[in-house]
């Protein structure tokens, strides 16, 4: 081992340690920012070490270095601009596109390495020798997983953005076609491993895997969107780990394994939070996707619903002792996180205990509500997860639901419907309930929310941003008096 290889390996080890410690710090909202920065610093170290090693080892190939510099500049600029300008409602789409880029890049690395080995064998006159299994198997798995992640994440982003309908898309023969593509992918993968290296068999595997990604995500409904984003994130990690094995890069192996493991654990936790298996989610067919409804009235399905005004809400909140806020996707869609934070601060300044009840699958990606509230500088100590929040509803004076639907539906406690068995926030245990919503339209699951017709519930039909602004004005008046 040369001195350069030793130093590069040490840099990778330090970077990997930073990844592990950073991921550990991300477990708590209090230390998540430091964990993110530490992990980012580790990635910078790994990239610098790789550049130095490549510069010394491969010398001045100006074509390759130019292509690398251009790609780094374009990709870095696009990523930085996108991350800074993206709206909170579009974060899930951005995460999906990051998953797509990660999986696609990993597959490209494996494919390029495979083609390079074929060309190298031809140039040295080695003939049609087999590639060792320790390399050929990771190449096949990398191309398979990476391509599925690439196409599946693009479709998921399209669904989240509304370019592709959020409802399950199933056409005659789709299941059979999916199975056929899987069989072709397996056959092409096996042939790539056992036969002399051929770009044709790997290309067939690539095309089949891309088709599988599309066919896997199309039938998945909007209700499963958070779990799908998490699952594809795990796929990205696995693809990167396989790419690390292909090019013998320890940093990629460790980083990919961490992402894959974390994504898998999160996927299983979110599936549990929806009382659904990962297999049933992949099979798809659940959820109707977004429905945009006009604000301003209850609509036709308002039997038994009690409509209230912002002034009614204001007086309840001003004289409450314990308030629980339940944020949902409607809050993100209206970009009303700053209004809800302002309202909570006004109440807190008056000595009122305010907490936020966060459901694991509220929103459209893992941790969507936590990120949304953190942007508005909501103290992490006020955010309660499902297990902590539910007992608190029993002593809650007012539960303020803003844009949440399926995660508060009491119908989940009864068998025989789309959300049966799904752990929900026990909002109906509060003494009084206020729901801020544009209309009576159902959530992703396509099921009417029984909470809306509860005798303790008052419905404020308004856009979350406008409705909260009116509530803030009302609360200020009562507090001043």
UniProtKB/TrEMBL annotation:
GO cellular component entries: plasma membrane
Catalytic reaction equation(s): NAD(+) + NADPH + H(+)(in) = NADH + NADP(+) + H(+)(out)
Enzymatic class: translocase
Major site of localization recorded for this protein: membrane
Subcellular location: Cell inner membrane
Keywords for the protein's UniProt record, in alphabetical order: Cell inner membrane, Cell membrane, Membrane, NAD, NADP, Translocase, Transmembrane, Transmembrane helix
Name this protein carries in UniProt: NAD(P) transhydrogenase subunit beta
Job of this protein: The transhydrogenation between NADH and NADP is coupled to respiration and ATP hydrolysis and functions as a proton pump across the membrane.
Protein source organism: Glaciihabitans tibetensis
Source organism, top-level taxon: Bacteria
Annotated Gene3D superfamilies: TPP-binding domain
Assigned protein family: Belongs to the PNT beta subunit family.
């Amino acid at each position: 081992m040369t001195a350069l290889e030793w130093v590069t390996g040490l840099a990778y080890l330090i970077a990997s340690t930073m990844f592990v410690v950073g991921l550990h710090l991300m477990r708590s909202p209090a230390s998540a920012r430091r964990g993110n920065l530490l992990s980012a610093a580790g990635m910078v170290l790994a990239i610098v070490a790789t550049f130095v090693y490549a510069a010394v080892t491969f010398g001045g190939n100006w074509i390759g270095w130019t292509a690398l510099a251009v790609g780094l500049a374009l990709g870095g600029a696009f990523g930085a601009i996108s991350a800074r300008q993206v709206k909170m409602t579009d974060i899930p789409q951005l995460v999906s596109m990051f998953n797509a880029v990660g999986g696609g890049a990993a597959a490209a690395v494996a494919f390029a390495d495979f083609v390079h080995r074929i060309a190298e064998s031809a140039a040295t006159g080695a003939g049609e020798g087999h590639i060792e299994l320790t390399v050929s198997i990771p190449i096949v798995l990398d191309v398979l997983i990476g391509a599925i992640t690439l196409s599946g994440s693009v479709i998921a982003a399209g669904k989240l953005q509304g370019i592709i309908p959020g409802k399950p898309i199933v056409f005659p023969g789709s299941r059979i076609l999916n199975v056929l593509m899987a069989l072709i992918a397996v056959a092409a993968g096996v042939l790539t491993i056992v036969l002399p290296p051929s770009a044709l068999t790997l290309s067939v595997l690539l095309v089949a895997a891309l088709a599988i990604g599309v066919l896997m995500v199309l039938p998945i409904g909007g209700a499963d969107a958070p779990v799908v984003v998490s699952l594809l994130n795990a796929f990205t990690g696995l693809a990167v780990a396989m790419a690390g094995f292909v090019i013998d890069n320890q940093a990629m192996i460790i980083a990919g394994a961490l992402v894959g493991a974390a994504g898998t654990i999160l996927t299983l936790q979110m599936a549990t939070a929806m009382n659904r298996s990962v297999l049933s989610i992949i099979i798809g067919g659940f959820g109707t996707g977004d429905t945009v409804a006009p604000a301003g009235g209850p609509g036709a399905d308002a039997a038994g619903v009690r409509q209230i005004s912002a002034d009614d809400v204001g007086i309840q909140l001003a004289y409450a002792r314990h308030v629980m806020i339940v944020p949902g996707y409607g809050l993100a869609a209206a970009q009303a996180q700053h209004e809800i934070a302002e309202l909570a601060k006004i109440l807190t300044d008056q000595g009122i205990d305010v907490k936020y009840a966060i459901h694991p699958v509220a929103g459209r990606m893992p941790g969507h509500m936590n990120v949304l509230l953190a942007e508005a500088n909501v103290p992490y100590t006020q955010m309660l997860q499902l297990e902590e929040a539910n007992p608190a509803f029993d002593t809650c004076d007012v539960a303020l639901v803003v844009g949440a639907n399926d995660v508060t539906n009491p119908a989940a406690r009864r068998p025989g419907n789309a959300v049966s068995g799904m752990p929900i926030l026990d909002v109906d245990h509060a003494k009084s309930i206020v729901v801020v919503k544009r209309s009576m339209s159902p959530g992703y699951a396509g099921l009417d929310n029984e909470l809306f017709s509860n005798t303790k519930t008052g419905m404020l039909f308004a856009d979350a941003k406008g409705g909260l602004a009116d509530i803030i004005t009302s609360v200020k008046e009562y507090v001043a008096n």
